[in-house]
Description:
Layout: H1 2-6, H2 12-23, H3 30-43, H4 46-58, H5 65-77, H6 80-93, H7 99-111, H8 115-124, H9 130-142, H10 146-158, H11 165-178, H12 181-196, H13 204-216, H14 220-229, H15 235-247, H16 251-264, H17 273-286, H18 289-301, H19 309-321, H20 325-333, H21 341-354, H22 357-370, H23 373-389, H24 393-406, E1 414-419, E2 422-427, H25 436-452, H26 459-465
Antiparallel strand pairs: 1-2
Amino acid sequence: MIRGHAQSETPCKAIELYNHMEAERAVTNGFTYSFVISACARSGLLREGEQMHSKVIANGFCSNLFVQTNLVNLYAMGGRSVGVGNARQVFGEMSERNVVTWNSLLAGYVRNRDIDMAYGIFNEMPERNVVSWTTMIAGCAQNGRCKQALALFGEMQRVNIELDQVVLVAVLSACAELGDLKLGRWVHLYADKMFRFRNQLVLVSLNNALIHMYASCGLIDEAHKVFLEMPRRTSISWTSMITAFAKQGRGEEALRTFHWMQCSGASEARPDEITFIGVLCACSHAGFVDKGRHFFECMKQIWGIGPRIEHYGCMVDLLSRAGFLDEAYRLVETMPMKPNDAIWGAILGGCRIHKNAELASHVAQKLTVELDPDRAAGYLVLLSNVYATTKRWQDASAVRRKMVEMGVKKPPGRSWVEIDGVIHDFVAGDWSPIHGYSIYKVLGEISAQAKSEGYEADILEKLIED
């Protein structure tokens, strides 16, 4: 019974049964402790797990492989440096270890975002299984090391480890971040061949990852095709599709998808706070001011979702883009939380579009006081752009001088592009790439052609950013 509950969705009941068992002075063994410690780990009950550790020592089961492995997992799942340190201590005391023990410690370091230590453990492992590879690849992908994640995936294939759907989800996440469409398509074909065409159930998370990958690579119709073919959808599926449409400026389709979501009636399709960020973002990009106001009220009144700062940011962006700058500023003043730089930046962007230098100056004063210099740099450039568009040259020059005095500079733009399966990284103003000269030559030709066809570049802004 303890084992059954420990492996179920109600692991806490395993601990309750153990307490009854102990009250009746029933005899316990290593398996009992293993399952109860596992239940503590799954329930997030670290203190109860530590108490079980004490009983393990008192009753002489501290050398049991299964008990020790579950103790490593208990402390590793606790996260933070202290938890992982305790896991490492138990691990070091073990005379025998199996791949499950190694995987538990590896997962602990990944959960603690210590990818370097995790990589060290991974390299030390005498044996690796698909869980080991998946943990390491997912850890890299989730912590900004996407190129390393894909390199590990290539190595995993070379050593002929069978791929499961969980590792494919992690790989697709890295592909989405890097814009690696070629590998993303390969994963899609592999999933169809190995799972879908064999009538095996495809994880919803894998389909969600495919939607995210295609959307991140700009192939919204491909993402929508995956979405339409899904036999089952969760709120993440709906939200991913809504957000994909929103980011591409396809506001009508985003809102139609949201309406469909509401009409589906499925318990798994209930909108959450992330869904409403996508909906409000769609309204902002499409300029649907009235609809944005409506959905902002609905999320509170109908769905009982309290707006987070991200929702306020979407509304401020929507109102500012549409020229309702006074309403946007009033909304900021009534927010229950302190506005962040993104919200002030949205108002500054609106000021630039609608040439409201007075409000921009007021907002910039708040930003320079509240933000550290490096984070304020981009907004100061934006303020100087507002002054330039309204021909307030002295003010624009004063902002530039202030930036020099503060010793700040706007971070250069950065982008990635995949060509023939190779991902190239570009930074604005960087001539170091092999084809740097050719790139800028083509850019000059495009600019000349645009000018010959009547396009007038915003020279004022260009001068200020340079």
